[in-house]
Design a protein that fits this description.
It is a single chain. With about 300 residues, the protein is mainly alpha-helical. It has a single domain, classed as Farnesyl Diphosphate Synthase, CATH 1.10.600. The protein has 15 helices and two strands. It has helices at about 5-20, 25-30, 30-40, 45-60, 65-85, 100-130, 135-150, 155-165, 170-200, 200-230, 230-235, 240-245, 250-255, 255-270, 280-290; strands at about 95, 95-100. A two-stranded antiparallel ribbon has the order 1-2. α5 (about 65-85) runs antiparallel to α9 (about 170-200). Bound molecules: geranylgeranyl diphosphate. Geranylgeranyl diphosphate binds near residues 82 and 154.
Length: about 300
């Protein structure tokens, strides 16, 4: 199957699962409209698709991993809602529509983000046992979620992003570090949990981790490039935010062409880690190459 078709099919699967998963909240909480608005807007769903395809490559099916993939998307959506708030990036549009706080107010948006963060842990812990995964694997997955969402992941990256704003002295290594924390951590999480629950050797798990770390940084570099080369209509979100917020990016440091070269090097480096396994992780390779196409 062509990778574009594969992605489209999996995106639909994830969208349906997300919708079903939060439906019980409709009767339970006045926060449901803000949660469903942010979560069900048309995101690319790249992270949950990475989880599905990693697990599928190992086990030959994806059914049992669907709630975990959705939990990664919930975590990601939480980070977008909070990142868009006036006290953070102050963005007006996201996924082609007004941001969550523009529609529901900052108070509701903040809580919708908080609720999605907790819900991701709720789903991971409850689905683990429901789907008969071993306790040890479930704990490892929960630990990965905690690391990816916290001070060693998203939050750590975001805070570094903030404190380095306006810093004209920032070097390439620091930018890589920030990008790997704020964006790489969720891509890494998405792939690793497929590997943990699928059950693979230490060596294979390390290779998948390396793939996801390099791909994760390239995903942010590509996002930074698109911030200056694409349009708000195509991206469905505010553009030129990095310049406005005086953020340290590789584009600001080296310019667009060099940043493209770096993104491309990272993608090819990432897929090199999958080569020892032949065609097994071909879908991951195809997704990585496809993402590079966004800036070609
Ligand atoms: C606790 C305030 C607080 C924040 C949590 C906000 C945060 C930590 C981290 C945010 C980091 C962040 C938003 C990074 C951007 C990552 C990125 C490339 C987002 C866009 O991803 P896509 O293109 O988006 O996959 P879609 O909309 O398709 O899902």
């Amino acid at each position: 199957m062509k990778i574009e078709l594969y992605i489209e099919e999996k995106r639909k699967l994830i969208n349906n699962a997300l919708e079903a998963m939060i439906l019980p909240l409709k009767e339970q909480s006045p926060l449901y409209p803000a949660i469903s608005y942010a979560l069900l807007l048309p995101g690319k769903r790249i992270r949950p698709i990475l989880t599905l395809s990693t697990y599928d490559a190992i086990k030959g099916n994806e059914k049992d991993i669907i709630p975990f993939a959705c939990a990664v998307e919930m975590l990601h959506t939480y980070s977008l809602i909070h990142d868009d708030l006036p006290i953070m990036d102050n963005s007006d549009t996201r996924r082609g529509k007004p941001t969550c706080h523009k529609v529901y107010g900052s108070d509701m948006a903040l809580l919708a983000g908080d609720a999605l963060l907790s819900l991701s842990f709720d789903i991971v812990s409850s689905s683990g046992f429901k789907n008969n995964f071993e306790a040890q694997k479930i704990i490892q997955v929960i630990q990965d979620f905690a690391v990816a969402s916290g001070i060693r992941g998203l939050v750590g990256g975001q805070v570094m992003d903030m404190v380095t704003m306006n810093d004209s002295d920032i070097d390439k290594e620091t930018i890589f570090y920030i990008e790997s924390m704020k964006t790489g951590s969720l891509i890494r999480l998405a792939v690793r949990i497929g590997g943990i629950l699928g059950g693979i050797s230490e060596e294979e798990f390390t290779a998948l981790t390396k793939f996801s770390e390099n791909f994760g940084v390239s995903y942010q570099v590509i996002d930074d490039i698109l911030d200056v080369t694409s349009t708000a209509e195509i991206l469905g979100k505010d553009i030129e935010k990095d310049k406005k917020n005086r953020k340290a990016t590789l584009v600001a440091l080296f310019g667009v062409e060099k940043a493209k070269e770096i993104a491309s090097d990272l993608i090819y480096k990432s897929i090199d880690f999958l080569k020892p396994f032949g065609e097994k992780y071909k879908v991951l390779e195809d997704i990585a190459i496809l993402s590079l196409g966004r800036v070609k």
